[in-house]
Amino acid sequence: MTHVPALLVIDMQNALAEIAHRAAGTIAVIARLRARARAAGVPVVTVQHHGPGLEAGTHGWHVVPELAPGAGESVIAKTSADSFLDTDLDATLRTLGVTELVVTGFATEICVDTTARQALSRHYDLVLVADGHTTSVREEGDGPYAAPDASLAHHNEIFRHLDFPGRSIRVLPSADVDFAPPRPR
Fold this sequence. Notes:
It is a single chain. The chain is an alpha/beta fold. It has a single domain, classed as Rossmann fold (3-Layer(aba) Sandwich). Helices cover about 30% and strands about 20% of the residues. It is built from five helices and six strands. It has helices at about 15, 25-40, 90-95, 110-120, 150-160; strands at about 5-10, 45-50, 75-80, 100-105, 125-135, 170.
């Protein structure tokens, strides 16, 4: 089977970046990955959430400038945590011939997790970029949520141990993501 990756950038919008843990660092990681994907001819697909506080056309709804979709790049509008639900993401990926999703974005426990699991259920291989997803800022003892760093580490570890028969699941730091096709053995 041919290996065809796509970089998926989930919900990296102005309003969400304003509440994101280590937003600047995560944006920089994704921007570097995006540049590498483009240089390798790998499709970049941006997912943009629509809903309360993220109304189309508002400042908060727009993707952060560092990750604004380029000409010819696909933008998927969604209204739930699942980037596949009632969207054309799957059709877009199939049209591009994509077999593996390299997943980045916001928020780790919600949209990133849900979309990554749905990708596996839809027969895509998965790379979760360990330093390319983030969650909201919260203080220790801020309700029942795990602290941001603990949540990121937890999700990275969970995905390292998921088992989806017939699927490749890797959790890699951005520096180890290779967009080149695998070498023949």
